[in-house]
Amino acid sequence: MKGKKLLVLVGLCFSCATRDVVAVQTLTLDATNTGTVSLPGQELRFEFTGTQGQQVYFDSLQVNAAEIRGSLVSPGGEVLFDVPLNLEEPPVYLPQNGSYTVKIRGQGDATGGFAFRLIDVGAQPAIGINATNSVTLSPSSLTVIRRFSGTAGQRIALDAVSWSGTDAEWLLIDPANQIVVEQSVNSNLGTNLLRVTGTYLIVVRGTVQDGAPVTFQFQVRDVSDAPVTASGFNIVRSGNIDPGQTNTFAITGSAGTPIYYDALVQEGSSDIGMQIVAPSGEIVVDR
Length: 287
Prior knowledge:
By secondary structure, the chain is mainly β. It has no helices and 19 strands.
Protein backbone atom coordinates (compact mmCIF):
# COMPACT_ATOMS: atom_id res chain seq x y z
CA MET A 1 0.00 0.00 0.00
CA LYS A 2 1.38 3.32 -1.04
CA GLY A 3 0.95 6.54 0.92
CA LYS A 4 2.62 9.74 2.05
CA LYS A 5 5.44 9.60 4.54
CA LEU A 6 6.33 12.47 6.87
CA LEU A 7 10.00 12.99 7.67
CA VAL A 8 10.51 14.83 10.96
CA LEU A 9 13.94 16.28 11.74
CA VAL A 10 14.47 16.92 15.42
CA GLY A 11 17.23 19.08 16.87
CA LEU A 12 18.44 20.53 13.58
CA CYS A 13 18.60 24.24 12.82
CA PHE A 14 19.15 25.51 9.29
CA SER A 15 19.07 29.21 10.15
CA CYS A 16 20.90 29.35 13.47
CA ALA A 17 23.78 31.81 13.76
CA THR A 18 27.19 30.26 14.24
CA ARG A 19 28.29 30.29 17.87
CA ASP A 20 32.02 30.19 17.38
CA VAL A 21 35.15 32.28 17.61
CA VAL A 22 34.70 35.59 15.82
CA ALA A 23 37.51 37.18 13.81
CA VAL A 24 40.70 37.59 15.85
CA GLN A 25 41.57 41.23 16.54
CA THR A 26 44.98 42.79 17.10
CA LEU A 27 45.51 43.99 20.67
CA THR A 28 47.59 47.07 21.46
CA LEU A 29 48.94 47.14 25.00
CA ASP A 30 47.50 49.94 27.19
CA ALA A 31 44.71 50.62 24.66
CA THR A 32 41.00 50.15 25.44
CA ASN A 33 39.32 47.17 23.77
CA THR A 34 35.52 46.93 23.62
CA GLY A 35 32.96 44.55 22.20
CA THR A 36 29.95 42.39 22.88
CA VAL A 37 29.51 38.68 23.48
CA SER A 38 26.26 38.56 21.52
CA LEU A 39 25.60 34.80 21.47
CA PRO A 40 25.84 32.08 24.13
CA GLY A 41 29.13 30.26 23.72
CA GLN A 42 30.69 32.98 21.59
CA GLU A 43 34.35 33.80 22.15
CA LEU A 44 36.18 36.95 21.09
CA ARG A 45 39.95 36.87 20.76
CA PHE A 46 42.61 39.57 20.84
CA GLU A 47 46.24 38.79 19.97
CA PHE A 48 49.52 40.58 20.72
CA THR A 49 53.21 39.78 20.61
CA GLY A 50 54.89 39.51 24.01
CA THR A 51 58.40 38.89 25.28
CA GLN A 52 59.60 36.60 28.05
CA GLY A 53 59.61 38.35 31.42
CA GLN A 54 57.28 41.13 30.30
CA GLN A 55 54.84 42.06 33.08
CA VAL A 56 51.20 42.72 32.15
CA TYR A 57 48.05 43.58 34.10
CA PHE A 58 44.46 42.91 32.98
CA ASP A 59 42.36 46.00 33.68
CA SER A 60 38.64 45.29 33.39
CA LEU A 61 36.78 48.49 32.61
CA GLN A 62 33.42 46.69 32.80
CA VAL A 63 33.44 45.94 36.52
CA ASN A 64 29.71 45.12 36.56
CA ALA A 65 30.13 42.28 34.02
CA ALA A 66 30.35 39.36 36.45
CA GLU A 67 29.02 36.91 33.85
CA ILE A 68 31.71 37.72 31.25
CA ARG A 69 35.18 36.19 31.65
CA GLY A 70 38.61 37.16 30.38
CA SER A 71 41.63 34.88 30.06
CA LEU A 72 45.20 35.17 28.80
CA VAL A 73 46.76 32.23 26.96
CA SER A 74 50.47 31.86 26.19
CA PRO A 75 51.92 30.72 22.84
CA GLY A 76 52.31 27.26 24.38
CA GLY A 77 48.66 27.08 25.49
CA GLU A 78 49.19 27.86 29.19
CA VAL A 79 46.32 29.82 30.76
CA LEU A 80 47.97 32.61 32.76
CA PHE A 81 44.69 33.86 34.24
CA ASP A 82 40.95 33.30 33.79
CA VAL A 83 38.72 35.68 35.74
CA PRO A 84 35.24 37.26 35.62
CA LEU A 85 35.40 40.90 34.56
CA ASN A 86 34.15 42.14 37.93
CA LEU A 87 37.43 40.98 39.49
CA GLU A 88 41.04 41.86 38.82
CA GLU A 89 44.05 39.65 39.49
CA PRO A 90 47.65 40.73 40.24
CA PRO A 91 49.89 41.15 37.19
CA VAL A 92 51.63 38.23 35.51
CA TYR A 93 55.01 37.74 33.84
CA LEU A 94 54.93 36.37 30.30
CA PRO A 95 56.77 33.01 30.24
CA GLN A 96 58.07 33.10 26.65
CA ASN A 97 58.39 35.11 23.46
CA GLY A 98 55.57 34.83 20.96
CA SER A 99 51.91 35.47 20.22
CA TYR A 100 49.56 35.73 23.23
CA THR A 101 45.77 35.65 23.13
CA VAL A 102 43.22 37.37 25.35
CA LYS A 103 39.92 35.47 25.18
CA ILE A 104 36.59 37.04 26.17
CA ARG A 105 33.54 34.80 26.59
CA GLY A 106 30.32 34.48 28.54
CA GLN A 107 30.08 32.30 31.62
CA GLY A 108 27.70 29.51 30.66
CA ASP A 109 25.15 31.02 28.28
CA ALA A 110 25.77 34.61 29.42
CA THR A 111 26.05 37.44 26.91
CA GLY A 112 26.87 41.12 27.27
CA GLY A 113 29.26 43.96 26.60
CA PHE A 114 32.83 44.26 27.80
CA ALA A 115 35.73 46.71 27.92
CA PHE A 116 39.30 46.08 29.05
CA ARG A 117 42.92 47.13 28.78
CA LEU A 118 46.01 44.94 29.01
CA ILE A 119 48.54 47.17 30.74
CA ASP A 120 52.26 46.96 29.97
CA VAL A 121 53.46 47.37 33.56
CA GLY A 122 57.06 48.17 32.66
CA ALA A 123 55.89 51.16 30.60
CA GLN A 124 54.04 52.80 33.52
CA PRO A 125 55.54 55.89 35.21
CA ALA A 126 58.05 55.48 38.02
CA ILE A 127 57.50 57.54 41.17
CA GLY A 128 59.93 59.02 43.65
CA ILE A 129 60.18 58.16 47.31
CA ASN A 130 58.94 60.83 49.75
CA ALA A 131 57.08 62.70 46.99
CA THR A 132 53.34 63.31 46.66
CA ASN A 133 51.86 61.49 43.68
CA SER A 134 48.48 62.15 42.06
CA VAL A 135 46.35 59.87 39.87
CA THR A 136 42.87 60.23 38.38
CA LEU A 137 40.54 57.34 37.62
CA SER A 138 38.42 58.37 34.65
CA PRO A 139 36.34 56.39 33.85
CA SER A 140 35.61 55.37 37.43
CA SER A 141 36.46 51.73 36.67
CA LEU A 142 39.99 52.56 35.46
CA THR A 143 43.16 51.08 37.00
CA VAL A 144 46.35 53.15 37.27
CA ILE A 145 49.77 51.66 38.07
CA ARG A 146 52.88 53.39 39.40
CA ARG A 147 56.29 51.79 40.00
CA PHE A 148 59.13 52.32 42.48
CA SER A 149 62.38 50.53 43.32
CA GLY A 150 62.71 48.92 46.71
CA THR A 151 65.49 47.18 48.60
CA ALA A 152 65.23 44.17 50.88
CA GLY A 153 65.06 45.39 54.47
CA GLN A 154 63.72 48.82 53.53
CA ARG A 155 60.71 50.06 55.48
CA ILE A 156 58.19 52.19 53.62
CA ALA A 157 55.09 54.00 54.84
CA LEU A 158 52.20 54.30 52.38
CA ASP A 159 50.05 57.31 53.17
CA ALA A 160 46.73 58.32 51.60
CA VAL A 161 47.00 62.12 51.33
CA SER A 162 43.68 63.10 49.70
CA TRP A 163 40.83 61.57 47.69
CA SER A 164 37.76 62.88 45.87
CA GLY A 165 35.71 59.71 46.40
CA THR A 166 35.98 56.31 48.04
CA ASP A 167 34.89 54.06 45.15
CA ALA A 168 38.47 52.91 44.61
CA GLU A 169 41.16 50.91 46.36
CA TRP A 170 44.94 50.91 46.33
CA LEU A 171 47.41 48.06 46.67
CA LEU A 172 51.11 47.39 47.14
CA ILE A 173 52.36 44.52 44.95
CA ASP A 174 55.84 43.03 45.32
CA PRO A 175 58.24 41.90 42.54
CA ALA A 176 56.78 38.37 42.71
CA ASN A 177 53.30 39.74 41.86
CA GLN A 178 52.03 39.11 45.39
CA ILE A 179 49.65 41.58 47.05
CA VAL A 180 51.39 42.87 50.19
CA VAL A 181 48.55 45.07 51.45
CA GLU A 182 45.36 46.69 50.11
CA GLN A 183 42.79 49.18 51.39
CA SER A 184 40.23 51.73 50.25
CA VAL A 185 41.82 54.97 49.03
CA ASN A 186 40.64 56.75 52.18
CA SER A 187 42.95 54.56 54.32
CA ASN A 188 46.71 54.37 54.77
CA LEU A 189 48.49 51.14 53.88
CA GLY A 190 50.72 51.44 56.95
CA THR A 191 54.41 50.69 57.32
CA ASN A 192 55.69 47.71 55.35
CA LEU A 193 59.01 45.86 55.42
CA LEU A 194 60.17 45.06 51.89
CA ARG A 195 61.29 41.43 51.75
CA VAL A 196 63.09 41.43 48.39
CA THR A 197 64.93 43.88 46.17
CA GLY A 198 63.18 44.85 42.94
CA THR A 199 60.36 46.86 41.41
CA TYR A 200 57.25 47.34 43.54
CA LEU A 201 53.88 48.49 42.24
CA ILE A 202 51.25 50.84 43.58
CA VAL A 203 47.97 49.85 41.92
CA VAL A 204 45.00 52.21 42.21
CA ARG A 205 41.81 50.71 40.79
CA GLY A 206 38.23 51.89 40.52
CA THR A 207 35.49 49.66 41.88
CA VAL A 208 32.28 51.04 40.32
CA GLN A 209 30.86 51.35 36.82
CA ASP A 210 29.83 54.76 35.46
CA GLY A 211 30.62 56.61 38.67
CA ALA A 212 32.28 59.97 39.21
CA PRO A 213 36.02 60.16 38.45
CA VAL A 214 38.25 59.65 41.50
CA THR A 215 41.35 61.79 42.09
CA PHE A 216 43.74 60.31 44.63
CA GLN A 217 47.00 61.58 46.12
CA PHE A 218 49.43 59.39 48.03
CA GLN A 219 52.98 59.23 49.35
CA VAL A 220 55.53 56.43 49.53
CA ARG A 221 57.88 57.37 52.39
CA ASP A 222 61.15 55.70 53.38
CA VAL A 223 61.04 55.16 57.15
CA SER A 224 63.90 52.66 57.35
CA ASP A 225 65.97 52.41 60.49
CA ALA A 226 69.52 53.68 60.15
CA PRO A 227 71.94 50.79 59.46
CA VAL A 228 73.89 49.52 62.46
CA THR A 229 77.14 47.65 62.83
CA ALA A 230 76.41 43.95 63.05
CA SER A 231 77.60 42.19 66.20
CA GLY A 232 77.03 38.88 67.93
CA PHE A 233 77.10 36.80 64.73
CA ASN A 234 79.39 33.87 63.85
CA ILE A 235 80.12 33.11 67.50
CA VAL A 236 79.83 29.62 68.99
CA ARG A 237 77.67 29.85 72.10
CA SER A 238 77.33 26.95 74.55
CA GLY A 239 76.12 26.19 78.04
CA ASN A 240 73.74 24.16 80.17
CA ILE A 241 70.07 24.80 80.85
CA ASP A 242 68.35 23.77 84.07
CA PRO A 243 64.59 23.05 84.16
CA GLY A 244 62.67 26.31 83.61
CA GLN A 245 65.82 28.27 82.85
CA THR A 246 66.25 30.60 79.84
CA ASN A 247 69.57 31.70 78.39
CA THR A 248 69.55 34.98 76.43
CA PHE A 249 72.13 36.13 73.88
CA ALA A 250 72.10 39.57 72.22
CA ILE A 251 72.87 40.19 68.57
CA THR A 252 72.74 43.46 66.64
CA GLY A 253 71.78 43.67 62.99
CA SER A 254 70.13 45.84 60.36
CA ALA A 255 66.66 45.18 58.95
CA GLY A 256 66.78 42.78 56.03
CA THR A 257 69.95 41.00 57.16
CA PRO A 258 69.65 37.29 56.26
CA ILE A 259 70.59 34.97 59.13
CA TYR A 260 70.92 31.22 59.64
CA TYR A 261 70.62 29.39 62.97
CA ASP A 262 73.12 26.54 63.18
CA ALA A 263 72.36 24.03 65.96
CA LEU A 264 75.75 22.44 66.59
CA VAL A 265 74.43 19.87 69.09
CA GLN A 266 71.52 17.71 67.94
CA GLU A 267 71.58 14.80 70.41
CA GLY A 268 69.40 15.37 73.46
CA SER A 269 68.27 18.82 72.29
CA SER A 270 64.74 17.91 71.18
CA ASP A 271 63.29 19.26 74.45
CA ILE A 272 65.13 22.59 74.22
CA GLY A 273 63.39 25.45 72.41
CA MET A 274 64.87 28.46 70.66
CA GLN A 275 63.39 31.85 69.77
CA ILE A 276 64.69 34.86 67.87
CA VAL A 277 62.92 38.03 69.05
CA ALA A 278 62.97 41.36 67.18
CA PRO A 279 63.44 44.72 68.96
CA SER A 280 59.68 45.27 68.65
CA GLY A 281 59.03 42.08 70.62
CA GLU A 282 57.87 40.18 67.55
CA ILE A 283 58.94 36.52 67.61
CA VAL A 284 60.71 35.98 64.28
CA VAL A 285 61.68 32.33 64.82
CA ASP A 286 60.16 29.88 67.31
CA ARG A 287 61.45 26.32 67.42
